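Assess this one:
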Amino acid sequence: MESEIIRNIENKKINVDKLIKQTFPVLGMSCAACAVSVESMLKSTAGVYDAGVNYASQTAWAEYENSVKPADLQNAIRAIGYDLIVDSEDPQLEQQQVQDREYEALKKRTILAAALSLPVVIIGMFFMNIPFANWIMMALSFPVVFVLGQNFFKNAILQAKLGKANMDTLVALSTGIAFLFSFFNTVYPEFWHARGLHAHVYYEAAAVVIAFILLGKMLEEKAKSNTSSAIKKLMGLQPKTVLAIVNGTELKIPISQVQVGYTLLVKPGERIAVDGQVSLGSSFVDESMISGEPVAVAKNKGEKVFAGTINQKGSFQFVAQKVGGDTILAQIIRMVQEAQGSKAPVQKLVDKIAGIFVPIVMGIAILTFAVWMIFGGENAFTHALLTSVTVLVIACPCALGLATPTAIMVGVGKGAENNILIKDAESLELAHKVNAIILDKTGTITEGKPMVTEAMWEEGDQMHSLRKQILYAMESRSEHPLAEAVVSNLRAEGVETISLDRFESITGQGIMALKDDIQYFAGNKKLMDHNGISPGQSLVSKIQQWQNEAMTVIYFGSEGQVIAAIAIGDKIKATSREAIQTLRNRGIEVYMLTGDNAQTAAAVASQVGLRHYEAEVMPSDKAAFIKELQAQGRVVAMVGDGINDSHALAQADVSIAMGKGSDIAMDVAKMTLITSDLNMVPKALLLSDKTVKTIRQNLFWAFIYNLIGLPLAAGILYPFNGFLLDPMIAGAAMALSSVSVVGNSLRLKAAKI
């Protein structure tokens, strides 16, 4: 690869110090061979240093000299029948709109092709003797083959110009020859009658093949039209306008005008627009998009804040330090784009095989014609024409084209029945190869919801009920995120609130209230120490136990004594340990990566039986860890639920999102588990295994059919017993092969996962 690049530099005289790298959406690609054509054309364009095409994401990237204009690349691609989107304000949106239009048009063509093909089949099979039967079938099948199926012929011609052949080539050849042969027999049946033969027509074979292949193409386009909108949603995390403080006055300005050093105001519930540092006020900020942790972080003067995070109940001002492409959010967007674009183009097995299969079939047809012309005797031309057409008809790729999509359709449906939503065929085909799985902690192994796990009150407290009401009233007025867990717990116990004489929030420590001239405090240990409040011996040991289990402890005290201690934690899902053990039993190495502290990570890993874990990791660290495993030859699956997991999900070979996670995580991921039950992960891998086996079986039978059928169609038995395969029987055999493939795929419905 390196030597090739060096040759490119020498041949094109490219100055590598003045290169521009840019990614463009591509339009018109319908198979992996198309991606190869676009890539080779880009690489051969003057001034281009290197290029690549991702068929899965329908994008192309190119490194080129600054003398090259994007329009030059666009013109080069247009010359071979494709297109690049350049000079667009929102290229992803424009590409999505084009794909949506293409899908709707293809759906209409498929429905119309099926509607026109049905009467052709009925007439061809049961009413061949009605008046003008051949002419009616010709009139109905002509628009199916040459109007609704015109793209097959166009793509076949384009491939032929490049010296290549694909599935479109075989579809165009077989249907075109079958139609033209039938047309000749309809217009001039006397040619065969004079030779004592019946003038057969095969309109139904040509029409049905086009209808079936259009259906397969529609399924592919459906997947493309649902291309992930993760990048757009990530961009949506940044507000369009901000409140800037200019000479003491609030002024709403577009985010594009924000510069480093501007002072911005953030109100409750608003998203933070850029990275910066708090200069006035305090609040709690939900940073789960970066850390993945559900507990909001206190922000006081001097604390850092990040674009895309959500301010909660307080208001504060901050000074912009990083804007535009320098923010953490922009970096996450860029990393997701790069990870999605770095995946190898989808090399569909059928397209690979068809690249060899098509020329072979064409060669067999020509060879058959030639052999019969030389050795066929007095009926040489008749037999030569019939056998060569039979070869093309029987080799029609209907079974081949249905082998993969039918198995995928059933596999995806089977997954949906088991709460596993699968976004594309690629991950379903790849998942059975997974030998390393990365699990996020919060929301994946754990519930992702802070809640009271245990509470302990001092024994013999005569004012127990009243003090619970006071604590309920205090926490109800608190802005701290953990207060909601306490309130929910007390509400569940049936505790009712009470009025307070005074309430005060103490930044970074907790809250204070006055009731009947008695002060009450609720918060962390620092608050207790500052006010001379200490726990009794019975609470001390319990608190120590909670801390060893990585629980967050809230203290409630008054008059020098801790009245109660409350443990808040993120509960581990009941199925997590079982699921992890199942994965390990399958020989899969399981890792946990979390942004939480080492003590919590160790406690969770111990409880679920994990040997490998990493704590305090950033989103980029997760993706880097996956890259390391991939460099070792591992096939890596990533399971996560947060925005912070989106980069790692995009980088992984197989990405799985928990159903209760963020929309962006689910958009990036190729599989989504609706129930958030970790046991669905091994089930998804097993489903992949069974689906891939079904695909292989389908392809086996499709090719066995051709392996047996092609020699028979060529007339290999004629010298021995005078047998020649009738093209009509060849058409029936082709249909039977399709039925067998579909039937085998349907067996997957009964499989247990």
Notes: The CA atoms of residues 421 and 672 lie 5 Å apart. The chain has four domains: 2-87, 234-340, 352-419+680-753, 423-676. Residues 1-10, 223-229, 339-347 have pLDDT under 50 and may be disordered.
